[in-house]
Amino acid sequence: xxxxxxxxxxxxxxxxxxxxxxxxxxxxxxxxxxxxxxxxxxxxxxxxxxxxxxxxxxxxxxxxxxxxxxxxxxxxxxxxxxxxxxxxxxxxxxx
Length: 95
What we know:
Trefoil (Acidic Fibroblast Growth Factor, subunit A), 3-stranded antiparallel β-sheet
């Protein structure tokens, strides 16, 4: 759906950030999973002002998002339809 994209690999586990079950559904959990190079593990970054990014899953075309726009520790990370307007639950900053 999107360009080749890149993978996010966790330093501790050596596993990749992936959409569980290669789902294309809104609300599908984003998990760590052994790296296999498949599209559900590839993300394309879209740059916005101030160093903010949307990350779009190559397999589903959906954005990396915090579930229910929660501000609570431990909130689930999911994929969700990318919003036309910039919404904070889908914006990520590398620090």
